[in-house]
Predict the structure of Sulfiredoxin.
Amino acid sequence: MLNGSIQSRTAKQQKLPLSQILRPIPPVLDTQKIDSMVRTLSGEAPSYIPTPAPEAIVLGQLPPVDVLHYKSPKTGKDYYFAFGGCHRLQAYDKAEVEMIDCKVMKVTKDMLKVYLGASVDTIINED
């Protein structure tokens, strides 16, 4: 949550191309967890359930990933950022799923600076 103003439970859910989601912070990944998520995506029972366990496991799908959306007023370009959901994103990539379920929250450039600091200007090129 950024400055108490963004909550994913009220965010619009939509499908986004995995290739458009930027992940600027390198993740630390558990391959066993990723492989289990790939099994879940393929409709098989998961081989690994993390602690704490998710509320519900639905075969063939994973919970939506929280994504921050910034639309440049200067260029009109859309930027989508994920700062969490790294295991799900890696599982989608490994399973070769192109469109994924996301909860999309609109943000300003200043809000992104909370996560990215001054590097936001390097990532978002508005010239």
Summary: The chain has four helices and five strands.
